[in-house]
Amino acid sequence: MATKRTAKRGRTAKRASGRYWSKRVMQTSDALDLRKGVFNLPPKKMARSLKRSAERSSRRKSAPLRSAMSMLSFYENRAGRKLPAVQKRKIVQAKQELRRLFGKER
């Protein structure tokens, strides 16, 4: 029991300090320069914003669609189980919209 408390304290202390590697990736990634709050937008606006960022970015290493999809997937995966169902649906809809915007519908 003592081991679990110690482990839990370690995680809490790390969270309090704000040293998430995923935060650093979102800010300094070579993928895209994202607009602040882009993942809180409605799906269509989110997709348009990601498309705009992907096309304008000089730091991305692959095609614009791939970079935008990668950022959406990264956000979705890092949130994990804590991502509310409503937000998950928005991400899925944004992915569909991105494919449509780039003419790559399934």
List keywords for this structure.
5 helices, 67% helix, mainly alpha, 106 residues
Largest sheet: none
Distance between the termini: 50 Å
Structural class by SSE content: mainly alpha
The radius of gyration over CA amounts to: 16 Å
* Number of discrete helical segments: 5
Number of strands: 0
**What best-fitting shape do the alpha-carbon axes yield?**
globular
Strand portion, in percent?
under 5%
Short description:
The protein has helices spanning 2-17, 21-28, 43-56, 64-79, 85-101. It has 106 residues and is mainly α.
Topology:
Layout: H1 2-17, H2 21-28, H3 43-56, H4 64-79, H5 85-101
Helix pairs in contact: 3-4, 3-5, 4-5
Explain this structure to me?
The protein is mainly alpha-helical. It has five helices and no strands. The chain has helices at about 1-15, 20-30, 45-55, 65-80, 85-100. The chain is globular, with a radius of gyration of 16 Å. The chain starts with a helix and ends in a 5-residue tail after the last helix. The mean pLDDT is about 80.
